Amino acid sequence: MLRFPVNSFRNTIFIRLVLTYLIVILPIILLGVYLYNWSYKNASQEISRATLMQLNYYLEDVNREIEWLEIQQYDLLQDNDLNKLAITWEMMDSIEKTSGMNYLKHRLASIKNSSPYIKDVYIHLQTIRKTVSAARDVNDFDKESFRHLKSALDRKASRLLVWKNALHLSAAKDSGKRDKDPLFIVHIELDPEKLKQSLAQLNTYPESGSFLLVDHAGYTLASDRQAETLMRQYPKAVEDSKASTTLLDLEEGVYHFNRAYSEKLGVSIVTFLPEETVGRPLGKFEIWAWLFAIMSFVAIVIYAYSTYRFVHKPLLVLVQSFRRMEGGALDIPIEHEQEDEFGYLYHRFNHMLKKLQALIDQDFKQKLMMQKAELKQLQSQINPHFLYNSFFILNSLARTGDTDRIELFTNMLGEYFRFITRNSEDHVSMSEEVKHSRMYTDIQTLRFSRRIKVQFDELPADMANIRVPRLIIQPIIENAYEHSLEKMDGEGLLRVTFEQDEAEARIIVENNGAVIDDDRLDTLSKRLSSTSESFEMTGMMNIHRRIALTYGEESGLFLSRSELKGLKVIIRIKTKEGERIA
Prior knowledge:
GO terms for molecular function: protein histidine kinase activity. Residues 309-361 form the HAMP domain. Keywords: Cell membrane, Kinase, Membrane, Phosphoprotein, Transferase, Transmembrane, Transmembrane helix. The protein is of the alpha+beta class. It has 4 domains: 9-30 and 284-326, no CATH class; 78-185, no CATH class; 195-282, Beta-Lactamase (2-Layer Sandwich); 359-574, Heat Shock Protein 90. It has 15 helices and 18 strands. The strands form 4 sheets. The protein has a 6-stranded antiparallel β-sheet, sandwiched between helices. Strands 8-7-11-10-9 form a 5-stranded antiparallel β-sheet, with helices on both faces. Strands 13-15-16-18-17 form a 5-stranded mixed β-sheet. α10 (384-400) runs antiparallel to α11. The protein is flat, with a radius of gyration of 45 Å. Residues 1-7 and 577-582 have low confidence and may be disordered.
């Protein structure tokens, strides 16, 4: 048997933990001294790499946005209604013209709202001398814009056009004739303020800033006023340098500049950060390094003491309790006032002791209940009254010569008695239990078919494989016949239904027999819920106890008054929380 080395102090977990802590902390102290020098040299490089990565992601995002806008442009160029409007304007009546213009305005508004970077979207229709805008409605033909955009398209300039201190995108619909102006030009104007806001999001520190450069056109856009000041000095300071990271000494101070360039857009994004901002966190690193070394040695002492008090001693208590449990002492719980991890372990250990006692007690009770169930089965289910009625039915069928029904009835009797007399297993599947109960009702239907009707629903497929104690449904049905339905003067009704949800399966047996009063119903319910042995062990109490022992106290039989006005018995089978019945 494994023995806990309580008397061998050097082999305890406490000493091993302290030595492990020393082995871990001393290299960390030495490493901290080295990291001070290494971190100061590499901090700016790491900041630059992170910034460049951020800038490249930003440019990729802008490029995707521009590509999306270009797709919208070219999709608009192929729009049938727009082309029809540009070509057949003179042949349209006023209704068609108005409808066409409304369609264009709606289409342009949709494009404008599709991107936060769009300030306005225009279509310059040269053939009808109109300019349609998403923000400014329909206006006279903007000849100046049309000529400038056409000239830029003829030159095959960059994707981004710079005009009137703003960035633009344009695409033209060719007229199909040589040396002729295009039918129309789709023109998107980007919003400088939105671009400034997106640039400001790149500023990681309050002292940092960013600006955008369109290299081929000399266009610049700064995120704030400080960035505008440095933006004017930056081109002269770097001249023709293409370095992605640069340290520049400007009028305002020394700054780290990081630049990323997109060939697809012909655009550069530049961010800057003061040198003092980069070194500020590292300036205190040396002080913290020495403080860390001193505090580490203090922590060793505190760690050793706290480990002994909060780990070693509680662990010894737990080990000693396990030894007592191995000796058979299940009535000595561990007392622990603190709500820590050991408190949880002690609580679970105490719970385990109670559970062991409960399982021992439950196993004893369950065996006793099964013995009583088998005795009750012989006394109440294989009784002369049932046998007499069965042979009476068989005799009546024999007199009429109904051999088919005789064969059917004898097969049913054989299956019925085979199920209730077999002792090989205490639990069966729900489908077997329901099959047996349905067979019992079929036998009773041959006897009472004229005055007792049976509604027996089909068992849901999800409930078919649930394992249940044997003989929990048929005795309840038999009780309904014996104490209610057989004594009725009018037509009787027995109904068996099934219900199911995620945490519970229910079998409901109800009838329209004599109305049960509240006192009688309350008495029966109390007897079912009572754990006292003073009551006689009836069939229903036996079923209730067996289900409760198997599935927990929330399972069992629950009685109420049926909508049919007779007794309603609900057999509930609870499962663990969140576990589906299948």
